[in-house]
Every structure is written in C-alpha cells, then in structure tokens.
Amino acid sequence: MFEDFHFSTILIATIRNAPVLLFAAFAGVFAERSGVIDLALEGKMLASAFTAAACTYATQNPYWGVAAGIAVSCLIALLQAYVAINQRGNQLVFGIAINIAASGLTFVLAQYFFQLGGRSPDLGAARFALIEFPFAESWSSIPALNWLFGQFLGGHTILVYLAFALIPVIHWVINHSRFGLRLRAVGENPHAADAAGINVAQTRYMALLVGGVLCSFSGAYLAIVQSGFFLRDMSAGNGFLALTALVFGNWRPLQTAAGCLMFGFFAALQIQMEGVAFPGIGQIPGSLIQMLPYIVTVIVLAGVMAKSVAPKALGTPFVKSR
C-alpha cells in the first residue's frame, strides 16, 4: 500500500547506504588526484569484504576483521602502484584484471574455507554494535526527537560515523594540507612537480595506500555491518557507482560526498518502492525498480561527463625528464 511509503525511512536508509560509497569514492579521490586511474575499487572492496568477514568469524572480533581487510586492500594497492608507477602499465586493463581476479578468488576461497556455496557463516554477535546517544531513553516518548536522535543521527555503527567524519577531514587534507598540495600538483603536472623537488612516485604510492585503507573500510562495512556475512560479488557494482560519484563531484571531496548521498538515496528509494502500490499506477515491477540506481547513474554520466574536468595527468605514466 502507498501508506507504507515513508520518507523518514528512506532518509535513515540513505545514511546507512552512503558509507559504502563514501569510503570507496574518497579512495578514488586520493588515487585519481595523484594521476592514477583507480578502476580497481570494486576488486579491493570485494577482497577486503571477504577478508574482514573471514577474520571476524575466526576471531569473533570485528576490529581484527577490519585490520585484516586493511592489510589485504593495501597489498592490492601496492601491487596496483607498482604496475602503474614503476612498470608504467595500462591502468585501465590492470584495474579490470584486479576486479575479475577478486571476484573469482574470493568465491573460491570462501567455498574452500566454509563450504557454504561461496559465502561465509553469519557473523552474529561478532558484528559492530550500534552506538546509542547518551540519555536516549529520556526522549523516546517524544516521536520527533526519538526519530532524530534515536534513528537518524543515533543507532549506527562506528563505521557510519567514521565515514561522515571523514568528509571535512579529507576536504581539508586535499585542499589545505601540504600533502594535498603535492598530491594535486602531481596529478595536474608531474613534470613541474618533479622540477619543484616533489617525489612523484612516492606521492602516488602514498595516495594509493591511503586509498587502499579507505577502500578496505568500504568492504568491511559491506560484510560486517550491512550483511553480517560475505557473499559472492556482494560489492554489486558499488565500486563503479563510487567512480560515478567521483566524476559527478569533479574529483572534489565535498561534491563527491554529495554524489554518494544521492546514490545512497536512490538505493534506499529502490528498496522502499518494492511492493508499494502507487495511486493510478499500481505496483511497479521489481526488475524495473532494481534498475533505478543504474538509470540514475547513466543520466548523471550523460549530463555531467561533458562538464567535469579530470586531473590533467590522470592515467598518464610519469617518465622523469633527464
């Protein structure tokens, strides 16, 4: 029924959907502002999701799971950096290769270790606990305050708060810190940056490592918070949606975060629309509803790509002048 369509529920779901995209998109911001195309976000998310779920199940401690996910994602980022920076390989092809390898390898390992058809066991109580605001019970009798502080702002896990706390931090790092200045210089004109004494290769390595850490949070959030288990290809294209948000935000942190929230909103809207009968329309077919985030992606890319300005050295290997 149409009465089951609640806008407040969509807003809460948006907050819970956004961290997956925020972490991955910010990882892409660091990599691509340094001049390296990061098409491997999907693969790093998937690898860290499997590792985080497996380690959390083994230790019954989600923090160990996150740490393991960080290690794996950073190893992939280092391999990616070696191919893109040292070997000057094709960044697009290698990114696709990582995505394909992660999709197959995580499934094989999950089947080998758990024998559950390529998924991990449920994590149960090993998942991150929800954080409630102090004195939450005192305003539970007031519906508006209970919704605002108990559901919209409160009642989330630590990774949700970390994702939103990183928005101003990363904005400051990219635009106002010394590292951010070097990062942007390397991405725009690596030869001028090299002439100014900036180590181009080292800056790009650091950018990809930071991106590896951030991308691991996205994978860990998928496995430990959203699902409570690992499932084959559970990233479900979120890495590519994060890249779309990155282009939508013109490679700038605040605008990229707005793009992530937009996609998170439409993902929440998609779930809320399933089974709802709209006046004069009736129920919309489920397959059409599931297409909604991707239709929005196509529209955004068609409308924004022509206006977005990528870093000038993006995807171009740096060869030091003699």
TrEMBL record:
The chain crosses the membrane at residues 6-31, 66-85, 92-114, 153-174, 205-224, 260-281, 287-306. It comes from the Bacteria. Its main location: membrane. The keyword Chaperone does not apply. GO terms for cellular component: plasma membrane. Keywords: Cell membrane, Membrane, Transmembrane, Transmembrane helix. GO terms for molecular function: transmembrane transporter activity. CDD domains: TM_PBP1_transp_TpRbsC_like. It is found in: Cell membrane. It is a multi-pass membrane protein. This is ABC transporter permease. It comes from Undibacterium nitidum.
